[in-house]
Design goal:
With 119 residues, the protein is mostly helical. The chain has a domain of 44 residues. The chain is built from 3 helices and no strands. The radius of gyration is 31 Å and the shape is flat.
Length: 119
């Protein structure tokens, strides 16, 4: 039986070696990687934004809230962050951020109001 197996292997080797290797490559385009092709239908912007007017950008979150979220995320990554009542370990990134923001709200940091759930 061993002799039969060897002969089969030899036959399969011969078939593979008789095939020709194709050395055809895709032609690379002359354009650079990040460049776009300009189309005639695109118009240049006038430089002014239409719609709302903004004098200066306001920060939605304050420094204190940023620190709280940073600390919560650090604990979450180390596996030390636990939820409030149940005391279970937090396994979700979103939950870790929510815990940090709620702690910041309790201390009076600048944080936007929570979204009201529609029920």
């Amino acid at each position: 039986m061993a002799a039969k197996r060897k002969s089969r292997k030899k036959a399969s080797r011969r078939k593979g070696s008789s095939r020709k290797k194709s050395s055809s490559r895709k032609k690379s385009s002359s354009r650079k990687k990040g460049s776009r092709k300009k189309s005639a239908s695109r118009k240049k912007s006038s430089g002014k934004r239409k719609g709302r007017k903004r004098k200066g950008s306001k920060r939605k979150y304050g420094k204190k809230s940023q620190k709280k979220v940073k600390r919560a995320m650090h604990e979450y990554k180390r596996g030390e962050l636990k939820s409030g009542r149940s005391g279970k370990r937090v396994k979700s990134r979103k939950q870790a951020i929510a815990i940090g923001l709620s702690e910041a709200r309790r201390e009076g940091a600048k944080v936007p109001n929570r979204k009201k759930s529609s029920s």
